[in-house]
Amino acid sequence: MEFHRPPHTFIGQVDIKVSNLERSLLFYQNIIGFKVLEQSENKALLTADGKTALLSIEQPEDIIPKEPRTTGLYHFAILLPTRADLGRILLHFIQNDIPLGASDHLVSEALYLNDPDGNGIEVYADRDSSTWEWQNNEVTMTTETLDGQSVIEEGRGEAWTGLPTNTLMGHIHLHVSELSRTEEFYTKALGFDVVTRYGGQALFISTGGYHHHIGLNTWNGIGAPAPSENSVGLKWFSLVLPNEEARKTTIDKLKSMGVWVQEDGGEILTKDPSGNKIKLVIA
């Protein structure tokens, strides 16, 4: 979990739009294991430790279903502290008949599912970073069959009681309309390094040698449009920068590149070339 604290830049919170807040709250509490930090009529902040919001879900008045073949959220990824934690939540998912995907990526072991609106979720645990293999500054990642039984056995002896307190938002994976300008935006303006490329269709980026803090893909098609503002899906995600000086430097880079930046009441928003909104916060 050393990759999710300063001096690195990492994902802090993800804000998604849903069509039915009450239904989504039941899912995120009972199935994923979040606790409610704050709640209003149309929005809830969700937490693992009772102090830090990792996910916010909101129901706009004029919400429409998730629009296909657009840019936006592919999945957000919840990072559990240990493999045993992954085993306990895997058994919990199975006992509740939750449709799942599961993969061994060498650097991590991951479960995949959707919320009631089709927003993608990954729940994963990292392998020790000393076991990750690097070649020419790229980390080796594959998609192999997960040894689910071994993962479950790792978690036996302790019941699932929700997300552990030191759960983090590990990464986010986005649909984008193209990769060239997107790569320039995230590397030159935001300071990320490319750590894996998948042909001309996807790339993973990080800071500090993590396997990825952000995934970017064009699997919804080159030139995919941004979704409608009131569509189910991603509203924004936050990048946590090490300090105010780093944030100011980032803002200056964005403006020098002609990128949209909005500063309002201490909140600073920008957006990538595909329209994915990013809130710049400090640790």
UniProtKB/TrEMBL annotation:
<dbReference type="Pfam" id="PF00903">
    <property type="entry name" value="Glyoxalase"/>
</dbReference>
<feature type="domain" description="VOC">
    <location>
        <begin position="10"/>
        <end position="126"/>
    </location>
</feature>
<dbReference type="InterPro" id="IPR018146">
    <property type="entry name" value="Glyoxalase_1_CS"/>
</dbReference>
<dbReference type="GO" id="GO:0004462">
    <property type="term" value="F:lactoylglutathione lyase activity"/>
</dbReference>
<dbReference type="InterPro" id="IPR029068">
    <property type="entry name" value="Glyas_Bleomycin-R_OHBP_Dase"/>
</dbReference>
<dbReference type="InterPro" id="IPR037523">
    <property type="entry name" value="VOC_core"/>
</dbReference>
<dbReference type="InterPro" id="IPR004360">
    <property type="entry name" value="Glyas_Fos-R_dOase_dom"/>
</dbReference>
<dbReference type="GO" id="GO:0046872">
    <property type="term" value="F:metal ion binding"/>
</dbReference>
<feature type="domain" description="VOC">
    <location>
        <begin position="168"/>
        <end position="283"/>
    </location>
</feature>
<keyword id="KW-0479">Metal-binding</keyword>
<protein>
    <submittedName>
        <fullName>VOC family protein</fullName>
    </submittedName>
</protein>
